[in-house]
Design a protein that fits this description.
Structural class: mainly alpha
Radius of gyration: 17 Å
Shape: globular
Number of helices: 11
Helix content: 55-70%
Length: 201
């Protein structure tokens, strides 16, 4: 498996909880990460990813923080993404339980989003929508959701629809919301039919 395939599966299958596909590919994802060069930013990020997602039980969870820092130091967008998510989730690392730090999360998600990572664009959009670590701003949230949606990220496509449904950063438009909900559904995002059915006709 190439590193591009590794990151594609992380982006488009794992995050929408497509467990059938994920389960099939977990051994290959682990093998790819084990063969990655930990001295490179991308390699360190790949090794960090399988620990973050809890796939490789042979890996020491304490390595996560070290690998993510190395990836960040080597200017890996994926390193910034996982560092941001660790701050957002308050994950356990070498120093124990980290405190939730939305400001630090947004700080790391921003370069990853600017670097073109769809997942980072999506999660940065959530930060702006909810006011987590940044000033709440519907326009900016929608901007980042659209960036993720342009790359085919199902959850970002859904969030563009959500913004249209609720008038977040854009004039309320149920027709556009329905269009994006159906598009997210076609990309495999579960639970979309309920949102489609709840929209006014």
């Amino acid at each position: 498996m190439r590193s591009t395939d590794f990151w594609f599966l992380i982006t488009h299958r794992v995050t929408i909880k497509d467990f059938s596909t994920t389960t099939t590919y977990i051994p290959k994802l682990n093998e790819c990460a084990r063969n990655a060069n930990p001295q490179s930013g991308n390699g360190a990020a790949m090794k960090a990813a399988v620990i973050y997602h809890g796939w490789d039980e042979t890996e020491d969870p304490g390595k996560l923080s070290f690998l993510v820092r190395r990836a960040v130091e080597r200017r890996s967008s994926w390193g910034h993404y996982y560092q941001g998510m660790m701050h957002y989730d308050g994950m356990t690392c070498t120093s124990g339980k980290t405190a939730l730090n939305y400001s630090a999360a947004a700080k790391h998600l921003t370069p990853a989003a600017i670097g073109g990572l769809a997942l980072a664009q999506h999660d940065l959009g959530l930060c702006y929508l909810l006011g987590h670590g940044v000033e709440k701003n519907g326009d900016t949230a929608l901007h980042w959701f659209k960036r993720g949606a342009k790359q085919g990220l199902a959850q970002s496509i859904y969030m563009v629809g959500y913004c249209y449904a609720g008038g977040h950063g854009v004039e309320q438009n149920f027709k556009r919301a329905r269009f994006h909900y159906r598009k997210a559904q076609s990309r495999g995002l579960p639970g979309m039919q309920r949102y489609i059915d709840e929209l006014p006709l």
